[in-house]
Specification:
The complex is a heterodimer of chains A (246) and B (260). Chain A is α/β, with parallel strands linked by helices and 246 residues long. Chain A has nine helices and ten strands. Chain B has 260 residues and is mostly helical. The chains are: A alpha/beta (246), B mainly alpha (260).
């Protein structure tokens, strides 16, 4: 096994009742890689990245994140500390200020003092470009700002892997680029990222590999250049023709 | 330079936490009730016959009613949180007893529960000899607790699942997620229905008269029987209840506004 593999999913099966959402998905990701996961809705791409930090249970297979297997409850917490997640609907804590949203986990999980946690929070707010909003509540921010806070909140735990579950799908068009810019900067800094998105420009520009999902399976894995210009699989071709000729 | 200045300026803003406000308000509320109680005592003593000369009995009754409500209310909140959480648990050995408890306490009359706590419980558990007040507190606390449990369960369920997911994916434990993310939001939602339950509790405490606990209703009933003047006496009883329930409601409106 390659030393640099940080996410390793082997033969993951998941079903809801009779419906099979994941039919044996295997994927390994190396440190510093940026993977963009594409596929039609309902193809299992969101379900898959949600299994990676234990938000979805799976019936068969194994997931190993940074040499820790996602088996027991104890391991689950350990893995979640190392894996950051950004959601489509931001999921900021509405009863806490921006600062408190970011500083909560470093204090409660890492055991940092409030001053230390605040320092990290300020640095991250600078990084995502909204330091001046630190004392506001989430409801007072725009969608783009909220999602940037959500990214900062996940980064505050200094994760080794970041998962993005359609981070721009709930945003107004004019706010998408501010979030993508933050994600691009993060990718350049060497963060390992798995991104479920419909932003083809981002996929082309930032991804090391494109992972194409269809009906609960990975159909094709390729470099962006290969995937967008010369996809191998019929279903990839169909998907691309549908989104590119909208 | 400007950086450090900003840090200094922007940190104090969120310092007064809503939990601190809650304590301040609860303290203020307690003082307010004491003042209200003194005012009521004063007015009752000034009232014309047959009230004025028997004001002490009224006041004693009202005090017992308030104590019953306060003690059972606090215990009932505790019961409600525990049972409400148990009802949401995935573990059936927690969920089923919680379901059973709620089913039992909401499906039987409070009067029967009070009578049971006072007369039957000491027979079942011989070492347990309860005086009237404690027996009533047990029955009232468990009863209001069952209603609170449903309110708290609903409040927790009303918090979007994404909140829990976000918290868990940051590495917080289930308990921390409940404590720092879900409960603070849920408690805000459940304040109005919980107050409803407290107001109901205050009125229902009149059933304690059935086992001879001298609270407001029994006091009124005795005076009314003794004087043969039910109209002024029971009217006074009603007015005292009204002033108590109204002030609880007003206090909570204030609390709600403040917490939001």
């Amino acid at each position: 096994m390659n030393q640099d593999v940080i996410v390793d999913a082997r033969n993951i099966h998941k079903s809801y009742g009779d419906f099979e959402a994941l039919k044996g998905v295997s994927l390994s990701v190396e440190k510093g890689e940026v993977l963009v996961i594409l596929g039609p809705s309902g193809s299992g791409k969101s379900t898959f990245i949600r299994t990676l930090n234990g938000l979805e249970e799976f019936q068969k297979g194994e997931i190993v994140i940074d040499k820790v297997s996602l088996g027991s409850e104890k391991n689950l917490c350990a893995v979640r500390r190392e894996v950051g997640m950004v959601f489509q609907s931001f999921n900021l804590f509405p009863h806490l200020t921006v600062m408190q949203n970011i500083a909560l986990a470093p204090q409660k999980v890492r055991g940092l003092s409030r001053a230390e946690a605040d320092k990290i929070a300020y640095e991250l707010l600078d990084r995502v470009g909204i330091r001046e909003q630190s004392h506001k509540y989430p409801a007072e921010l725009s969608g783009g700002q909220q999602q940037r806070v959500a990214i900062a909140r996940a980064l505050a735990m200094q994760p080794k892997v970041m998962l993005f579950d359609e981070p721009t799908s709930a945003l107004d068009p004019e706010m998408i680029s501010e979030v993508l810019d933050v994600m691009k900067e993060l990718a350049k800094s060497g963060m390992t990222m798995l991104v479920v998105t419909h932003e083809m420009g981002f996929a082309r520009e930032v991804a090391d590999r494109i992972v194409f999902f269809d009906s609960g399976q990975i159909v094709e894995i390729a470099t962006p250049e290969k995937f967008f210009n010369n996809p191998t699989h019929e279903r990839s071709k169909l998907f691309l023709s549908q989104i590119l000729h909208r | 330079m400007t950086k450090s200045k900003e840090v200094v300026e922007s940190t104090p803003a969120p310092k007064i936490h809503s939990s601190a406000w809650l304590l301040i308000l609860l303290g203020g509320g307690a003082v307010g009730f004491y003042v209200l109680f003194l005012l009521l005592s004063f007015l009752l003593k000034l009232a014309p016959e047959p009230i004025g000369s028997r004001a002490d009995l009224f006041i004693e009754g009202a005090r017992t009613t308030l104590n019953l409500t306060l003690v059972s209310g606090v215990l009932g909140l505790l019961v409600g949180v525990l049972v409400g959480l148990a009802k949401l648990s995935k573990k059936i050995w927690l969920r089923y007893p919680a379901d059973f408890f709620i089913w039992l306490l909401r499906g039987t009359p409070l009067l029967v529960q009070i009578l049971f706590a006072y007369y039957a419980l000491p027979m079942l558990v011989p070492s347990l000899r309860l005086e009237e007040f404690s027996a009533c507190v047990i029955a009232l606390a468990l009863n209001v607790g069952a209603y609170n449990a449903e309110v708290i369960r609903a409040g927790i369920q009303a918090i979007h699942k994404g909140q829990t997911e976000a918290s868990l994916s940051l590495g917080l434990t289930k308990f921390q997620t409940l404590r720092f993310v879900v409960l603070p939001q849920a408690l805000l939602i459940v304040v109005p229905p919980l107050v409803n339950n407290i107001v109901a509790l205050l009125k229902d405490s009149s059933l304690a008269s059935a086992i001879g606990l001298l609270e407001l209703t029994l006091a009124g009933n005795r005076i009314s029987a003794e004087t043969f003047l039910p109209v002024p006496v029971l009217t006074t009883v009603a007015i005292v209840y009204l002033s108590l329930t109204t002030s609880v409601t007003i206090f909570t409106h204030f609390l709600e506004r403040r917490l939001k």
